[in-house]
Design a protein that fits this description.
Layout (H helix, E strand, L loop, with lengths): L4 H15 L3 E2 L3 H13 L7 E5 L6 E3 L11 E2 L9 E2 L3 E7 L1 E4 L8 E4 L2 H11 L4 E3 L3 E5 L1 E2 L3
Antiparallel strand pairs: 1-11, 2-3, 2-6, 4-5, 6-10, 7-8, 9-10
Helix pairs in contact: 2-3
Length: 146
Amino acid sequence: MVETDIEKEYLKKLSRKTKSFSASYMSNSKWRKLFTAINVDSVPINQCSWKLVTEDKSLDGHLPNARYLSEDHVGDCGALSGPFLFQEIEWVLLPRVVSFQRYEHAPIEHLNQNIEALKTLIDETGNFEYEISIDGLKIYGYKNLV
């Protein structure tokens, strides 16, 4: 595939952003391995928050289905507003509790996600940098160490 000048410039910008972090934990294959394991297992995760290095704020979405995992990116599966490179993922937060409305003006409902079972699955899958907090389980692609 031939890269356009815009794509080349974006990749240079992305490289500068990722090099600004003091620690890098994930490769394309590790992200694929992680997302595939979560898809295959029976731990239902209905929502997550993505923090991409190219964005100032985290974005709500969902984990990609394994069939949308490419060699170096997540395809346009609705996880976010379009395809994105694994290299762009600063972190993914899998919240303990998801709040949603089934339809407009409906009461807000809360759904618990089994973070403890997910932690066990992640530990069995490989060596991943994550932390567990009251908010949920956050898996890091990059981090600044203080």
